[in-house]
Design a protein that fits this description.
2 copies of one chain form a homodimer. Chain A is of the alpha/beta class. Chain A folds into 3 domains: 5-48, 434 Repressor (Amino-terminal Domain); 62-155 and 282-308, Response regulator (Rossmann fold, 3-Layer(aba) Sandwich), CATH 3.40.50.2300; 157-280, Rossmann fold (3-Layer(aba) Sandwich), CATH 3.40.50.2300. The first copy, chain A, has helices at 5-12, 16-24, 31-44, 50-57, 76-88, 102-113, 128-134, 157-170, 186-196, 213-226, 236-248, 266-270, 282-298, and strands spanning 62-67, 92-97, 118-122, 140-143, 152-155, 175-179, 202-206, 230-233, 258-263, 276-279, 305-308, 311-313. In chain A, helix 7 (128-134) links the parallel strand 3 (118-122) and strand 4 (140-143). Chain A is elongated, with a radius of gyration of 25 Å. Chain A starts with a helix and ends in a 10-residue tail after the last strand. Chain A binds a DNA duplex through helix 2 and helix 4.
Chain lengths: 323, 323
DNA sequence: TACTTTAGTGCAATCGTTTGTATCGCTGTC
DNA sequence: GACAGCGATACAAACGATTGCACTAAAGTA
């Protein structure tokens, strides 16, 4: 059916090895021969069979991208960027969704291992021990989590949290609540550590909470009870839920309480009031993670952590504190 | 490095072909031998090399999933469901993003063709002629667009539109605007045709518009000018933009104008007022599309169109019309 | 002129599976 | 007792590429 390297070889009167080299080792073949072969290949619509190539070279030119939940608005921009970057490098991306289940995550890595050159792990739920074990089988890059000895891409949410708190204090808020996320979350820990070092302000920690709209909704009671007039939420979904919960209790945002989220996901840009938030460079993270992965595929892994800048985006959910 | 079928064969004292058959043709090998081989394979951590298998069988056990824009909230649930379904069938999914560019879409299909058993095309922007040509190379299933002679998964947005208009008329609205989408869109056409057949109501068509929040924002002027008190928007993003545009012109939703969107994406559930919308069964579409695709991979393609039901979800953006 | 180098190409092994065919030892039949 | 039939297994040829090595002819060197 399909046109193979052999067809091209016959059509151009050379051996298959010459055709192969015309593509992958140009300097080894006569320029004239090369252009002729390439033209004929083009003509015949020849595309190298990657499976066959993978068999001899051991390189599949595929990478795996594993996320907890594709439908979580945080991930699509990252996936999109990673896929585009991989395409630039002539790699294809398997996307897999673990449904937040560590067991599924491990299985997925196992079955993917043999047909990819590396795996991108986004916000993995696996234990460090398991990651340690699996890294023997395939190169990893981890995004959004610290993993000792592995190349890692992180976003500086600590600095983001400081910017957020500074923004709130500049607006006159003196008592601030940090609505934390799940207890195991690296992001949440970073935010707490950063907030704890701030001066000129009282910070109360409320949590842990599920990282969802419902988590925010439920946290509204605590926020009201805390007497805080400024809130930094674990992420935008929590912030949106919180704003709703506050409204139910007669509190207006930003009139009575200022709320800041994290992630800058699409719903936050469209909700009302539009969410002031800490923007995470997810697209950049995806791009860089792919580059790091491909780099560690054909040389020794550089186990450095890359830290990306975050930025405060002020929209409508924060305002001046009144006495 | 990795453990191959040969290692398993040697460890169990049989020929590789026996090991192969122990997996893929159990009835051809002695039950005793089989269990022994399987145990040893398990022990050694043997995983068949898919590239090698693909080479002989011609089946890669991969499928391609091509969408216009991963970051568009409409797609992730579909991708998620498709990927999960594929995994059930022991298939892996390449996800690729065309950035809404037909040329990229065509390239993508070309390069993917050789390493997948079939391609899922979601809301393709390709011309019918191009699809016609490409289908020679690889089995397709098309989602969210009519494609003659190809298996197709559609969502009954026509019925959804009728439900929406009925809902508005039941609330007393007598003049309704349909804010249409891009001119080439199948969905938009379906909605127009359905709306045109409704009685007891004036329907005005406003468009075409880009399928984004900005498109909705810009359409607000026309809506106000049209004198309509009820609006059906091309999708949720447009609806959200429209609500914002109406607010800028002093029109309250649902007080002055009722607005209905399409898709039931997450932002619509979180925006304020919460959006009344026509829910599209995207997850089901993803699942079914995968099944159809795998089916047409190893038998003749059934070129039937599957139509999925939509549903009206009433939230807060629609209300009674007042004289 | 004889020898070495080098550019360009062909040859053949190899990657890890699958699968059609051959082989082998039994059992049952006539 | 010869042989067909059969279950179980081994053999070996693919699949489509890559790549180390061998070879040839021309160019460079002494």
């Amino acid at each position: 059916m399909a046109v193979t390297i052999r067809d091209v070889a016959e059509a151009s009167g050379v051996h298959v090895s010459t055709v192969s080299r015309a593509f992958s080792a140009p300097h080894l073949v006569n320029p004239e021969t090369r252009t002729r072969v390439l033209a004929i290949a083009e003509d015949l619509g020849y595309r190298p069979n990657r499976a066959a190539r993978a068999l001899t070279t051991g390189r599949t030119h595929n990478i795996g991208l594993i996320v907890a939940d594709i439908a979580n608005p945080f991930f699509p921009p990252l996936i999109k960027a990673a896929q585009a970057q991989a395409r630039l490098r002539d790699y294809h991306v398997f996307v897999a969704d673990t449904d937040e289940d560590p067991q599924v995550e491990e299985d997925l890595i196992q079955t993917l291992t043999k047909q990819v050159d590396g795996v991108l792990l986004c916000s993995p739920r696996l234990t460090n021990r398991t990651i340690e074990r699996l890294r023997e089988e395939v190169p990893f890059v981890v995004v959004n989590r610290r993993a000792k000895g592995l190349p890692t891409v992180l976003m500086d949410v600590g600095r983001g949290a400081r910017l957020a708190v500074e923004h709130l204090t500049a607006l006159g808020h003196r008592r601030i609540a940090l609505v934390t996320g799940p207890s195991g979350s690296w992001t949440s820990k970073e935010m707490q550590e950063a907030a704890a070092t701030m001066s000129d302000v009282d910070v109360v920690f409320l949590g842990p909470n599920p990282p969802t709209e419902l988590g925010g909704l439920a946290a509204a009671t605590d926020v009201v009870a805390s007497g805080a007039t400024g809130v930094l939420a674990y992420n935008d979904l929590v912030a949106i839920g919180l704003i709703e919960g506050l409204a139910e209790r007669g509190k207006n945002v930003p009139g009575d309480v200022s709320v800041i989220g994290v992630d800058d996901i699409v719903p936050g840009r469209l909700s009302r009031p539009k969410l002031t938030t800490i923007a995470m460079p997810t697209a950049a993270a995806g791009r860089i993670a792919v580059d790091l992965l491909l780099q560690s595929v054909d040389s020794a892994a550089t186990a450095a952590a890359t830290m990306l800048e975050t930025a405060l985006i002020v929209r409508e959910s924060t305002g001046k504190a009144h006495r």
